[in-house]
Amino acid sequence: MRTPYPEIEPYDSGMLAVGAGQSVYWEVSGNPDGKPAVFLHGGPGGGTAPYHRQFFDPAVYRIVLFDQRGCGRSTPHLADGATLEHNTTWHLIADMEALRTHLGIERWLVFGGSWGSTLALAYAQRHPERVTELVLRGVFLLRRKEIDWYYNGAAGYVYPDEWAKFLAPVPEDERDQDLVEVYHRLLHSPDEQVARAAAIAWSTWEGSTSSLLPQPDRIAETAEPRFALAFAKIENHYFRHGGFLEEGQLLRDIGAITHIPAVIVQGRHDIVCPAVSAWELHRAWPGSVLHIVADAGHAANEPGITHHLVEATDRFAKEG
After folding, report:
1. What is the Cα gyration radius of the chain?
2. How far is Cα 71 from Cα 269, in angstroms, rounded to an integer?
3. CA 66 to chain centre
4. Residues with Cβ < 8 Å from 318, sequence gap 6 or more?
5. How far apart, in whole angstroms, are the C-alpha atoms of residue 130 and residue 46?
6. CA proximity to 65, closest of 128, 8, 129, 10
7. Residue 132, phi then psi, degrees to nearest 5
8. What is the pLDDT of residues 151-206, one digit of tens each?
9. Collapsing DSSP states into helix, strand and coil, what is residue 134?
10. Catalytic residue positions?
11. Tens of pLDDT along 222-257?
């Protein structure tokens, strides 16, 4: 069983101005002369964490992490009153290109899980010449049926106790409406207590359902108000707009990247991003490798998920 690499510290970091008053935090660790790889965090709105570096052999990889607009250490932060006007998938792709250029990287491995897999696919389809390989986990194609599964009731059949908590901030006479839209109103309420309660409920719904077995630290992190406000507002913004993608776009345009080596890692019991999306992606991409992990949910730190992610980055390091 592959385990994460030892935690390391960045050897370089900074803030990159990307326009419209936005700056993204970035850091680089590992081998300065190694194989470039960029890690795309989930959410959107989740931010990076030190353990994200541990999926890569630091002796071999030049590991790039960055916090997407409005969250983590990027500025301005959503919890500090930033707007979402200049925050779309296409802005994030432009930020990736600006960062790649800033760091003097010609091509890189792109690694993304959950929303990070969405962004990885969209980036690769826009800039296939910049991608050496793709490592995807917990595939999310951001189709309406995927959003409805998780936010409009079906997933609640598996987690009825947690679903009741998600519904708690929603007025009873609005619970049969599109809850993504209802939550948009709640999250942007002028009443700060209403917005905060909605953000925590939205964020902890994901934190409570992301792994096969409960992870109390994850749940506590998602309930932290500053994190929850950015996470919930950014996610809701993207999901209301279908990720700023045309419906089914990522599968429709898969031909642009089928020449790129790819490994897909998917938990069998993933409630957040059910395995059908990874399966459909793999079926449309014959050269991809799909690992369905029998004893895992959505989280990257579940042992079987981690094993296959590290195995994939080790494989691509050896292949160059």
Report:
1. 18
2. 28
3. 12
4. none
5. 24
6. 10
7. -85, -45
8. 999 999 999 999 999 999 999 999 999 999 999 999 999 999 999 999 999 999 99
9. strand
10. 114, 270, 298
11. 999 999 999 999 999 999 999 999 999 999 999 999
Q: pTM value?
A: 0.98
Local structure of 20: helix, strand or coil: coil
Fill in the amino acid letter for 294.
A
Half-sphere CA count of 64, side-chain side, radius 13 A:
25
Q: Report phi then psi at 300, rounded to 5.
A: -70, -25
Query: For the stretch 136-163, what's the b/e string if a residue is b when 16 or more beta carbons lie within 10 angstroms of its beta carbon?
Result: bbbbbbbbeebbebbbbeebbeeeeebb
The Cα-based distances of 246 to 66, 143, 181 in angstroms read 26, 9, 19
Residues 268 and 296 sit within 8 Å (Cβ to Cβ): yes
The owner of tokens 């793709």 is 134
- If residue 35 lies in a helix (H) or strand (E), which one and from where to where? strand 35-40
CB 3 within 8 A of CB 26: no
Under 8 Å between Cβ of 67 and 41? yes
Query: Can you name the residues that pair with 4 across neighbouring β-strands?
Result: none
Structure tokens at 97: 């290109």
How many angstroms separate the CA atoms of 23 and 38, rounded? 18
List residues bridging with 290 in a β-sheet. Answer: 264
Residue 173: count of CB within 10 angstroms of its CB: 7
Do residues 51 and 69 make contact, with C-beta atoms less than 8 angstroms apart?
A: no
- Coil/strand/helix, residue 92: helix
Q: Which two tokens stand for residue 253?
A: 């345009």
* CA–CA distance, 150 with 138 (Å, rounded to integer): 14
